[in-house]
Design a protein that fits this description.
The complex is a heterodimer of chains A (about 325) and B (about 500). Chain A has 14 helices and 10 strands. Chain A is of the alpha/beta class. The longest helix of chain B has about 35 residues. Chain B starts with a helix and ends in an 11-residue tail after the last helix. Classes of the chains: A alpha/beta (about 325), B mainly alpha (about 500). At the A-B interface, α4, β7 and α8 of A face α4, α17 and α22 of B.
Chain lengths: ~325, ~500
């Protein structure tokens, strides 16, 4: 490392005492080709112009992000390794379900750049036209209707929260756990399960097979002709917490910001400049990704809210 | 079933421009190299190619990916035959007879057999796809956990067939493998058998474990010998013999066709492509009049495993091309191209893009022919491995295998697994336990458990639920017949099955 710093300082003597003096690694704790990886590769293409150093993407998948995240925290907190990850639901799940050796305080969550929402879907051949019809059917036939769940996902937690809000136990539906959201969506398209609460973004691939019944937002969206869930639940005099889906954000170890606040500020300003750059905005648009700026404070709030919701329903998803 | 107008449009699409063809040869070569060299991985190839995809049009991107896949399907057979190193789970069946053939100096023939069987298998799968893509896909997405469970149980009977000389040791080895398969985070979020190691949460890394069990253990056995092939006169690369091997493939049309059809059928199931080669091998062995020859360098073993492996992606290609839904394997990768070109799936996908789908299938058929030529040249070069003295080859292969296991697992879990399983594999061979049975158990353990758990969850524990799954019932009946058949036939004088 010292040799590398020496070599680059020889190349760029002007910047010798300023971060970043050498390339920055973006760690993605998931596989190549996933959403976090593709977003990271886009940023690695456009952000170096504003950061002054190249960025390289490294993927270290495993155990729902736990393996890569653990490795990330073992690196020096000097700003030369930054993580791009769907911070929720994975970091809360790592902590609460998989017993990771880190806490939310181990991280600085830079900005929820691209956030997904949750949606209630049924296969097209099922008889229910509205969310109320489905809820009534579940109540009339407890333990008969099945739902798919990607274990520990926001969709899974939301399913339990919905049952809880309706005064129903976890046995009120048959919960079928799948290995990953992809396998679950295929099963939903094939009508293997009766309904699913999952991420809207992935659902586009099976749009022709499904009927949306509700969105877990406080407003309607143009993509899906379905009401907000809490409007439906008014008739039942209850409501559910609206938990954000995948929140993709840059993450630093908390020690980096504490020890090097100027370097952190420099990273954030380069990142904001990238988000504002027209060529990056075009790239995001072409790749159907979002480029929101909500900032560190709001992002941390979202992650914490999801953590609390998961904590509340953790015992239900284990049952 | 073929829409002739669309077919004509597809031919026009492919013939009016040379651009779609530009990517075929690089795609096949990339697939071959990445899967033939231990130490390179598909995700590395993907990382290199992803940035290129947006610059291709949709058809070109799909053709590039199918070409890469055509090369990959055959590529894994090369190290499986020459070095007993299966590059993926899909090549395990090929090692059973491939490596014994290579050791006997019939490496040229073995590689030729594998190439011809792989090309034929792929061609049959794509022809089926061309005629029946829509019905296959409609059928495929109706298959769920109960059907998967039946196939997984079927696969387990293979453990008994791979038992070697002692039935009890074979079963013990199989159960050991099944138990190893349950290590890691279950689909219900429980961590089992990890002893607190985070690296084991994803389970035992399968490919490093297989390479350790098969290759490293075998390489230890080679210490003391000078070359893979003992006979100096046979230690050469011979185009004539490779061609003879390719020709020989068609002397077993029954084995070839059964393999291709079984592969196409099992490949429809999500996750089925990893076990298609094993089931086909097992069925070929069951159907043979002289099953004791299998495992000692029988060409039918290679043909059965390779034809099934090659055709097994057809099923998931059907759901991808007809419905725009990936069901795993290579198709999940191709989804990236869908996403980048803003194309979404649905029942109308093929109806809206029939010409495009036909164009992909037709070009894939053409790729099979190109693969036969490129593959021939490739194995001609790869075959020179037999000329390398073992005192140089063994360390090189072991080093590459260790690097490859690190690349696959992306952490030390890979190399550690390889080392541990090399010792286990060597000990098992030393004490006459069948290593292959452990591998089958390891491959099926997780699959079977997941299918069983989901079937239980879907049924709510009610056994009557199976009556609502007619496809599973038919499969169960076929399975029962297949198991019962040897007992129903009049007993014939039989030597204890060798392994």
């Amino acid at each position: 490392m010292g040799a590398a710093a020496l070599a680059s300082s020889r190349l760029a003597p002007v910047q010798a005492d300023q971060w970043p003096r050498r390339p920055v690694t973006i760690l993605v704790p998931f596989d190549v080709g996933g959403t976090a990886d593709r977003l990271a590769r886009g940023l690695a293409q456009f952000m170096p112009k504003y950061l002054g150093q190249p960025m390289t993407v490294v993927d270290r998948a495993g155990a729902g992000g736990l393996i890569g995240t653990t490795w990330f925290l073992q690196q020096p907190a000097d700003g030369y390794t930054v993580m791009m990850t769907p911070a929720t639901p994975f970091i809360p799940v790592n902590i609460l379900v998989t017993h990771a050796h880190y806490t939310l305080d181990s991280f600085t969550f830079v900005n929820a750049q691209w956030t997904d929402y949750t949606i209630l879907l049924v296969p097209k051949d099922r008889p229910w036209r509205t969310a109320a019809e489905l809820i009534d059917a579940i109540r009339a036939n407890p333990g008969k209707i099945s739902t798919g769940a990607d274990f520990g996902s926001v969709g899974h937690i939301t399913t339990m929260a919905l049952l809880h809000a309706l005064g129903l136990g976890p046995d009120a539906v048959r919960i079928v756990t799948f290995d990953g959201a992809g396998a679950m969506r295929t099963a939903l398209a094939g009508g293997q399960v009766d309904f699913n609460i999952g991420q809207a973004e992935g659902a586009a691939f099976i749009a022709g097979f499904i009927r949306p019944l509700a969105v877990f937002l406080d407003h309607r969206v143009p993509e899906y002709n379905a009401p907000p869930i809490n409007d439906v639940l008014k008739a039942y005099h209850t409501s559910v917490p609206l938990i954000s889906g995948s929140v993709r954000t840059f993450v630093f170890p908390a020690a980096f910001k504490a020890k090097h606040p100027e370097d952190y500020a420099k990273f954030v300003s380069a990142y904001r400049a990238t988000l504002d750059a027209p060529e990056f905005r075009k790239w995001l648009h072409d790749n159907q990704m979002a480029g929101d700026w909500v900032g560190e404070e709001r992002t941390t709030e979202i992650v914490r809210a999801n953590f609390e919701a998961l904590k509340q329903y953790k015992d239900l998803i284990k049952a | 079933m073929i829409d002739l107008t669309a077919l004509a449009a597809a031919v026009h699409l492919l013939c009016s421009s040379w651009q779609p063809w530009l990517v075929v040869v690089p795609g096949i070569l990339l697939g071959l190299i990445v899967h033939a060299v231990p130490g390179l991985t598909t995700s590395m190839a993907l990382a290199i190619c992803l940035p290129l995809i947006p610059y291709m049009d949709f058809l070109q991107a799909l053709i590039f990916m199918t070409a890469m896949y055509a090369g990959a399907l055959f590529g894994v057979a090369i190290p499986a035959i020459l070095l007993n190193v299966p590059g993926s789970a899909a090549a395990v069946g090929t090692t059973f007879d491939g490596f014994p053939m290579a050791q006997a100096g019939r490496h040229n023939e073995a590689l030729g057999l594998a190439l011809a069987a792989s090309c034929t298998g792929q061609a049959i799968a794509y022809l089926l796809l061309l005629c029946f893509a829509e019905p296959i896909a409609a059928f495929a997405i109706r298959l769920g956990p109960p059907e998967m469970l039946v196939v997984a149980l079927w696969g387990m009977t293979l453990i008994a067939r791979l038992r070697g000389r002692h039935l009890a040791r074979g079963l013990l080895a199989g159960v050991f493998g099944l138990l190893l398969g349950t290590v890691g985070l279950s689909v219900r979020g429980a961590a089992r058998g990890t002893f607190g190691f985070d690296l084991l949460l994803d389970g035992i890394p399968i490919v490093p474990a297989i390479v350790g069990l098969f290759a490293a253990a075998e390489l230890f056995n080679l210490v003391g010998r000078d070359y893979i092939v003992d006979d100096l006169t046979r230690r050469r690369v011979d185009a004539g013999r490779i061609l003879a091997g390719m020709r020989d493939t068609f002397r077993y049309p029954g084995t070839l066709l059964r393999g291709a059809l079984l592969g196409s059928g099992i490949g429809i199931l999500p996750g089925g492509h990893a076990i298609a080669n094993l089931l086909s091998y097992s069925e070929a062995r069951r159907a043979a009049k002289d099953p004791e020859k299998f495992g000692k360098g029988d060409p039918r073993g290679i043909i059965a495993a390779e034809s099934a492996n090659a055709s097994s992606e057809g099923g998931s290609m059907a759901t991808l091309l007809a419905l725009g839904i990936p069901t795993g394997g290579a198709t999940a990768v191709m989804l990236v191209a869908f996403g980048m070109h803003n194309i979404t799936g649905g029942p109308a996908f093929m109806r809206d893009h029939t010409d495009l789908v036909y164009a992909v299938i037709l070009s894939s058929l053409a790729q099979v022919g190109i693969l036969a030529v490129i593959g021939f040249g490739f194995i001609f070069v790869a075959g020179f491995v037999v000329k390398v003295p073992l005192r140089m080859l063994v360390p090189i292969v072991l080093a590459l295998a260790v690097i490859g296991s690190f690349a696959l697992a992306q952490n030390m879990a890979g190399p550690i697994t390889l080392a541990v399983f090399a010792v286990i594999g060597w000990l098992m061979q030393r004490f006459d336990y069948p290593v292959a049975a452990v591998v089958v158990g390891l491959l099926l353990g997780r699959l079977t458990e997941g299918a069983l758990l989901r079937t239980y969850q879907m049924s709510g524990g009610d056994i009557g639920y199976m009556l609502t799954r007619p496809i599973a019932l038919v499969m169960l009946a076929l399975f029962a017949i297949s198991v019962a058949l040897p007992f129903l036939r009049p007993a014939r004088p039989q030597v204890a099955a060798g392994g």
